[in-house]
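Fig. S4 source data, part A: sequence.
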Amino acid sequence: MKFWDFLRGGKVALTYGSLWSYSPWGHSEAERRSRDYRYMLKNEQTVEYGGKTMFMSEVVPKAILESKSTLPFMTLFENDPVLVPVTRSSLLQPNSLWVGLKVATAMQRAGLGSTVSQSLAREYAVGTKASAEEHYDSQRVEQKLLTEPKHILLVDDFVTRGATMIASALRLWETYPKADIAGFAPIRTISWPPDFKKIDDPVFDRITLYPSGKCHRNP
């Protein structure tokens, strides 16, 4: 199947949830702190949380469970989904850090998923601004599950346009066409500073891939 085959019937949408937001350009104290959140997660640093020293990947499921009664995206976890970490844009080297896998593993240990499957693999590196088509072409489903999953949750460290995440979903839909696939990222990027509200700003919405091949993440 080809990338453009998915768009013959029009746009494609992927439901996603996100816990925190970050501003790459804003100058307020909250926006500066949001960049610290992203840095600590991207580099899997330890932080003090709830009186304990924890890796940032471990903070994610703890923060979710502590606020589960008010979070808008808790339906993502209702059916014990298979957690599939989204691949990095660069090729994975031995002993290199894969934050999506770290977060997915921590979520599974906390009961926010049935299992973790490293189903996706990157065949060659792409740029950080790669299109959804480029992300799609550079990936493959490497590890097939023994039984076809009903629910798959893609897990990434952060989401900007959503091109990587929705391209990953297309690859999985090829292999598991009946699966309900959604996405989750602890942090989403708010590129335009006036749109930034606060760090703790959970959302449950969608990423849309249009017939032009362009992606749009809302909000």
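Fig. S4 source data, part B ends here. Residues 3-212 form a domain with the Rossmann fold fold (CATH 3.40.50).
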